[in-house]
User: Which sequence fits this backbone?
């Protein structure tokens, strides 16, 4: 099966236990008539993310949810890749926040490492947010949809919207962070929105 097999009224299992990601995915899915349930609501465990890439981790989560639920499942793996840090934290973005999911700690770590690397000017603080969606079906087939948005890291963090590293990231073409941005505007330009646009195109067969 492929994405164009999805129809309005189908139930899609969103394989995330992250409430911020869930809210964004629900918002992106809503116009397309798909019902959403979550791995958490179905009592499905969260598999360990042992992959070496965003694609591998997204597939682990989506395939586990599709197999256990018998329904199509959508998983997201995403993170911020900071150029001066060799692409870190990348796939470890959530893990840098620790078991308490304290992204204040994670953002402070990024800032400390940037300073240690001498990356204090805007041109040395370039970064990109990456989101990879994996759509998996119970028969084991998968499709991947990748979105990226480039920008730079700032300090101190600004804004209370979004989640994760959003208050530290200013996308190119803007002078405000994702954390300061109206959620509707972020949904229009974000890495996750760009990945989802590719999924929607695949659902329509275009």
Assistant:
């Amino acid at each position: 099966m492929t994405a164009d097999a999805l129809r309005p009224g189908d139930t899609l299992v969103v394989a995330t236990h992250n409430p911020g990601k869930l809210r964004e995915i629900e918002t992106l899915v809503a116009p397309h008539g798909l019902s959403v349930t979550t791995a958490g609501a179905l009592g499905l465990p969260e598999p360990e993310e042992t992959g070496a890439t965003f694609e591998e981790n997204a597939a682990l989560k989506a395939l586990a949810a599709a197999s256990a639920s018998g329904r199509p499942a959508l998983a997201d793996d995403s993170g911020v890749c900071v150029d001066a840090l060799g692409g870190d934290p990348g796939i470890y973005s959530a893990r840098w926040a620790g078991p308490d999911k304290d992204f204040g700690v994670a953002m402070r770590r990024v800032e400390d490492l940037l300073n240690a690397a001498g990356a204090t000017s805007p041109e040395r603080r370039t970064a990109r947010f990456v989101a990879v969606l994996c759509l998996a079906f119970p028969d084991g087939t998968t499709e991947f949809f990748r979105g990226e948005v480039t920008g730079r890291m700032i300090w101190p963090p600004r804004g209370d919207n979004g989640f994760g590293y959003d208050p530290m990231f200013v996308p190119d073409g803007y002078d405000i962070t994702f954390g300061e941005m109206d959620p509707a505007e972020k949904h229009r330009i974000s890495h996750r929105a760009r990945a989802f646009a590719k999924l929607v195109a695949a659902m329509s067969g275009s």
Summary: The first helix runs from residue 19 to 29. The chain has a mean pLDDT of 92.
